[in-house]
Amino acid sequence: MAVTLRDIAKKAGVSIATVSRILNNDTTLSVNVNTRERVLQIAESLNYTKHKRTQNNQPEKIAVVQWYSLSQELDDLYYMAIRMEIERSVQERGLVTVPIYENSMEEIPGDVTGIIAIGKFSDSQVEQFRHVTKNIVFVDYDSLAAGYDCLVPDFENAVRSVINEFLSEGIKDIGMLAGTEKTTDNEIVPDLRRYYFENYLRQHDIYRPEYMFVGDYTSMSGYRAMKEAIERLGDKLPHAIFIANDPMAVGALKAVQEAKIKVPERLAMISFNDTALVKYVYPSMTSVHVATDEMARSAVELMVKRLANPESDARKTVVGTHLIKRQTTK
Question: 62, 97, 106, 140: least surrounded by Cβ within 10 Å?
Answer without folding.
Answer: 106
